[in-house]
Amino acid sequence: MDRRLLEILVCPLCKGPLLLRKREQELVCLGDRLGFPIRDGIPVMLEDEARQLSQEETETLREARN
Q: What is the secondary structure of 6-45 as a DSSP string?
């Protein structure tokens, strides 16, 4: 994913920053605990398409980020 695109994309719900998970092909909003899929290189920024992250997964991502 283009770094410039990642810098301007925000969560469509809370407008917070997103974390790129390359292996999982998703953009994650830790605030809303949502993972937005990336399909064919295109982020799908729709709430209906996002998956809910577990509390444990969210904590793991927060710890890895710091």
A: HHH---TTT----EEETTTTEEEETTTTEEEEEETTEE--
The total of other beta-carbon atoms located within 10 Å of residue 50's CB is 22
Residue pLDDT, tens place only, 20-46: 999 999 999 999 999 999 999 999 999
Class assignment of domain 3-65?
mainly beta
* pTM for the model: 0.90
Q: Which residues pair with 35 in a beta bridge?
A: 28, 51
**Burial classification of residue 42, based on how many CB atoms lie within 10 Å of its CB (0-12 exposed, 13-18 middle, 19 or more buried):** exposed
